[in-house]
Amino acid sequence: MTIAAGIDVGTGAVKAAIFRVENGENTWLSRTTLRIRQRDPMELARVAFDQVLEDAKLSEKDVDYVATTGEGE
Fold it and tell me: Which residue, of 16, 29, 53, 73, has the fewest CB within 10 Å?
């Protein structure tokens, strides 16, 4: 079993998701979207990541892989 997370910093929103991969099947555990609205995108990335961890009842240590992407500044 692998727990993976993804964080996308876009120009208007930050999105984060956590899912489990087990026996070739993906299961969403949590996902969120936060609008930037004159806030620091890097701080929002942390907030979004913390939020999906809490929603999935996981800690950072439980996550095996984190991918990031985005066009946000």
Answer: 73
In one-letter notation, the amino acid at residue 32 is T
What's the average model confidence in pLDDT over 12-25? 95
Task: For residues 12 and 58, give the distance between their C-alpha atoms in angstroms, rounded to a whole number.
Answer: 27
pTM: 0.89
Nearest to 39 by CA among 68, 72, 8: 72
Distance of CA 6 to the CA centre of its chain: 4
Closest CA to 34 of 20, 19, 51: 51
If you ran DSSP here, which 8-state letter would residue 57 be given? Answer: T
Structure confidence by residue, pLDDT tens digits, 28-53? 999 999 999 888 989 999 999 999 99
